[in-house]
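Let us work through a complete example step by step.
Step 1: write down the sequence.
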Amino acid sequence: MATFKAMVIEKSDGATRAALTDFDEANLMDGDVTVRVEYSTLNYKDGLAITGKSPVVRRFPMIAGIDFAGTVETSSHAAWKPGDQVILNGWGCGETHLGGYGEKARVKGDWLVPLPASMSAREAMAIGTAGYTAMLAVMALEGHGLTPERGPVAVTGAAGGVGSVAVAILAKRGFSVSAITGRPGEADYLKGLGAAEIVERKEFAGPPKVLAKERWAGAVDCVGSTTLANLLSMTRYGGAVAACGLAGGMDLPTSVAPFILRGVCLYGIDSVMCPIARRREAWKRLENDLDHQKLASMTHEIDLSGVPAAAASILDGKVRGRIVVKIG
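Step 2: predict the structure and record it as tokens.
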């Protein structure tokens, strides 16, 4: 059997280490579809896995990467045939199942969605789990009944991967977007994506009030912890917040007041095990609801050898927008 290049995480003496190495195709895990991977991407969770800062990886050795886009090589699954172009997001890849940072992947066909006709594999991974998660968050807010007429919306962690795409989507949908960021130097970048207002994250750093002044009709939160608690206290009556990140921590120091006195809803956004029908809907909407020129402006490319350094940078809050990883 052939070998291929992959970014593999090994564990030794309780410590993990990621390195680019040759991986034997015979050691791929069970699945009914084998894909020649063309592009992957770097998400916050990938950063945690590569650096070992959080116990994301549950089996070793592990090919990292929770996303990929590529072309089907072999398939015994009824929905897929050789030559089909496909996308995978989540399903435990890069955690419990060998992931997308390798030239080949073998997965369950039920985990795949077709590459939209208007997208290249590179564009799909410029979106990646971060952008697909942003779309799921927007869908949750709109399902709540949120429209531009209801008032402005906020996006926390706005200069990051999920935040950047959320700002661009919401702006294109006609919302007035407040971009909340700890990097005020990114103001021009965020306004270029469509943000109407830049708000410094330090306004959300203090202990949250039970109820603060009502400011936003809804929000996409990528940060969690005190930031999310403050955001909930500032959400208008009947509004909603879609929570999809934990860059600030997993705790939530809030009270029931926003929920029972203002009727605020908190939607949890899970991209990993999201049902396939909703995945397809999200990717279909990404064809039209995301300006692809703005996507290009927020994206830069690295190869597999650049993943470890980029992983450290994303955890340090130094990555703006999206990183595409060219495989092979």
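Step 3: interpret the result. The mean pLDDT is 95.
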